[in-house]
Amino acid sequence: MSAQINRGKADEAGPLRAGTPENGPALSPSGKSGCLAIVRPAEGSKADSAVKPKLASKRATGPRTPSGKERSKRNALKHGIFSQAVVLKGESQAEFQSLLERLLDELQPEGALEGLLVEKLATLNWRYHRLLIAERAEIQESTEFLECDKENQQNEEAEKFVGREADLFDTHPGLISLIHNPAVLDRCLELLTELREVVEKHGLNHERDEGILEKIYGGSDVNHLHDDLRQQYTEWFETSEVPTEQAQQLGYATPEKCKQCVLLLIGLEIDYLKGFRKHRDTIEANRMKLEKLRRNVPESPKLDRLLRYEASLERAFDRTLTQLERWQRMRRGQPVPPLLKVELSS
Asked: What's the rounded Cα separation, in Å, for the pair 273 and 228?
């Protein structure tokens, strides 16, 4: 066998050559298996032309479909110059990016300028979303704490009067005139319960019980529209002090009977105040519902500030969208309508 391989015959044999994995190891001149010999295809040969497409296919070639090319063209716009500045601490960067990508897909910008205009539209939408959150916060601040503010106000009012009970006897018609305040009403019920326990245990004693009665109904010089428990207590106490023989002659009630009548009157007063409290709670609950509905619109000047901000965002959005549309029309060779400028004078 000749030691040299005829190159021309090898080329005619096709792209598979000795020394390749397909053909096995190359033969030595003696025809026996020896060292592997790496034989490269000749430049321009059929084998060389068959290898090059395989190598090229392994390299990245980028998007091939029209939709893939469109997406690739906007990759540089997805992380624009405004995205880091517009998203505040506590807000979602991912949500802003999602908004931006949706606008990019919808408006199909080309070039840096159109990309900036679309990103500006995204920032304006993001700020408008923030405006709605601020409006909701204003409404919640004025409604969710309404009951707490009302309760604090009532407690302050109650402290002002209950803390000065001893100074109100001669100048104020007692705590009973302030029972619209829940804390004052509770104080009246507390004093009446204390009075009932004392009378039930020790009987009638005008000097002892007058202090409690004056706290609730005011001094003896204060006139009420109807007879109150203080006046009725005084009448029954005076009756109980009449001597027994004289009381029998006049048909007056016995001291024990007078005591039971006073206890009955105290019980009726307690029941009345409890019923008043229940009725007042129903009215206050309905009033609170209406007040919350009314406050669903923020008060001025908070409302004015929100409306001015909303108007500025809407003007900026319309202006930016118009700029983008005009620029895209010019790029596509379409007619561009003239700008209309309206100036309002006061």
From this structure: 13
